[in-house]
Write a structure and sequence with these properties.
The chain folds into two domains: about 1-75, Glycoprotein, Type 4 Pilin; about 90-165, OB fold (Dihydrolipoamide Acetyltransferase, E2P), CATH 2.40.50.100. Helix content is about 0%, strand content about 60%. It contains one helix and 16 strands.
């Protein structure tokens, strides 16, 4: 299976093949073998170079959103034109001033108030998805213009959570 990651507008081709030892992943410059087992519908247990990881996978229109060790990655098929960047990984998809949910989940904490100044990478809210707490961070410094959700609310992927404005 051939996929590609989009990171900072750069396409990274990835070939994945099932072998007797696990999954061989060819990143072009390096090959690794990963032992992977599905824990649930959207959760995979991985062992890579003797280290254990839990990968959360959410299907989206263009492929998949993958969340592992506090980082959000997009994975799509090579024929797709994905426009993900570091801003997406920080919790904002597209416009950096609209902070969106990276995956479906439940808002369990809002750390800011309307009118409050925020710095880049500051945790604005926490969304629980697949029994993991995902910190939603500001992609840039600004001021909270409007909080669009409340604690306890269920949100879909890409749902606007908080709107910022430039200072």
């Amino acid at each position: 299976m051939n996929f590609e990651f989009m990171v900072d507008q750069k396409r990274i081709p990835v070939a994945i093949e099932k072998t007797s030892q696990g999954w061989e992943i060819d990143l072009g410059e390096a090959k690794v073998v990963v032992d992977a087992h599905w824990i649930s519908e959207n959760c995979v247990s991985l062992i890579l170079e003797g280290k254990s990881y839990t990968l959360h996978v959410v299907p989206v229109d263009n492929g998949y959103l993958c969340y592992v060790q506090g980082e959000l990655w997009s994975l799509g098929r090579p024929t797709q034109d994905l426009e993900y960047s570091q801003a997406d990984q920080a919790g904002a998809v597209g416009d950096k001033l609209k902070v969106k949910a990276p995956m479906p989940g439940k808002v369990i904490k809002i750390n800011v108030q309307e009118g409050e100044a925020v710095r880049e990478n500051q945790t604005l809210a926490v969304v629980e998805a697949m029994k993991m707490e995902n910190e939603i961070k500001a992609a840039q410094a600004g001021r909270v213009k409007k909080i669009l959700v409340s604690v306890g609310e269920l949100v879909d992927a890409d749902r606007p959570l908080i709107e910022l404005e430039e200072e």
